[in-house]
Design brief:
- It is rod-shaped and about 80 Å long.
- The longest helix is centred in the last third of the chain and has 40 residues.
- It has three helices and no strands.
- With about 70 residues, it is mostly helical.
- Helices cover about 85% and strands about 0% of the residues.
- The model has no long low-confidence stretch (mean pLDDT about 75).
């Protein structure tokens, strides 16, 4: 347990392995993840809106078909 804690403490202080230090400082992927999350939220909202609209259109077309 103390080894794990000291390793994590070393990462926070910047004393970890070089590859880990480089990855913890690299912030390029953060923007891509944020854009991905925004795109996912927009897609979920679009699917919900289309589902609701589709149900409304089905009832309208059924009403029109019964009137004909």
């Amino acid at each position: 347990m103390t080894t794990c804690v000291s390793f994590l403490q070393g990462l926070v202080e910047g004393k970890g392995p070089r590859i880990v230090r480089r990855l913890t400082r690299d912030r390029r992927g953060v923007t891509a993840i944020e854009y991905g999350l925004i795109a996912a939220l927009v897609a979920i909202a679009a699917i919900a809106a289309m589902t609701t609209l589709g149900t409304s259109l089905t009832s309208v077309f059924s009403l029109v078909a019964s009137d004909l």
